[in-house]
Specification:
With about 240 residues, this protein is mainly α. The protein contains 12 helices and 2 strands. It has 2 domains: about 200 residues, no CATH class; about 30 residues, no CATH class.
Length: about 240
């Protein structure tokens, strides 16, 4: 991985730390958690793009931040996100070991050491990946109700878990009535949580819809919106030359 001297702290002299270049979001995560701990307005006191629940998951590394001379909250967030990668690897092994322990072990190790997982120690993607793996684990183990509950919680954490919502209707391992029941659980969890956050912070809790669609006038998340990425891809369509 590429590392460079990026941040200088002032504490009893100049202390230098080395972190990944693209670790800017960690400061945002710390700021959002600090606002929550101070009982501030998450959508007024700081820029917040994702759904509200993910920001509560930044509280543990914020509270457990070591002294600046040891790395500060950057270090605690690195360790925190790394733990989710370890937990995700463990769930993969437990979820797929019935298909063969050797294959399940290889899958978990690959998830643990592949470059994509390693780069997520600077981002909250490790948390999102863990939630998705947890959903799959619960569904594999036949815990449909817990899976439906986790899908609801995951959707209010980051929208990617929401892709499992319609998938519940196609689970052939249970009858259609139970599928509808599980779907109701998921939708109810999402509705109750968003109503709660709406009563606290107002309509800005739904700003993530514009954030992920890339339609916000002041901020266009190129790396977040699939539409912005598609637009940025140069595509050349050769046209047949007309014969004379």
């Amino acid at each position: 991985m590429t590392w460079e001297k990026e941040k200088k702290f002032q504490e009893k002299g100049d202390v230098y730390f080395y972190f990944r270049v693209d670790k800017r979001d960690i400061a945002k995560f710390h700021r959002r958690a600090s606002v929550l701990l101070q009982r501030g307005n998450l959508y007024e006191d700081t820029r917040t793009g994702p759904p509200p629940l993910i920001n509560f998951m930044f509280i543990p590394p914020t509270l457990l931040s070591p002294p600046v001379s040891w790395g500060g909250y950057y270090l605690s967030f690195y360790i925190y996100f790394s733990l989710f990668i370890l937990l995700g690897s463990l769930l993969l092994f437990l979820g797929f070991k019935d298909w063969g322990e050797d294959k399940a072990f290889a899958l978990s190790i690959f998830y643990l050491i592949n470059p994509i997982s390693l780069t997520t120690i600077i981002q909250d993607e490790s948390v999102i990946a863990f939630i998705i793996i947890l959903i799959i684990f619960l569904l594999i183990k036949g815990k449909e109700k817990l899976g439906a509950l986790t899908i609801g919680l995951g959707s209010v954490t980051k929208v990617w878990s929401g892709f499992f919502i319609p998938a519940q209707l196609f689970d052939r391992n249970i009858n259609f009535k139970k599928r509808i029941y599980n779907l109701v659980i998921t939708v109810s969890v999402i509705g109750v949580l968003f109503l709660f956050f709406y009563l606290i912070w107002g309509p800005k809790v739904f700003w993530f819809l514009k954030f992920y669609s890339g339609t916000h006038s002041k901020f266009h998340p190129r790396d977040v919106s699939i539409w912005k990425n598609l637009v940025s891809i140069p595509v050349s369509i050769p046209l047949p030359s007309s014969s004379t």
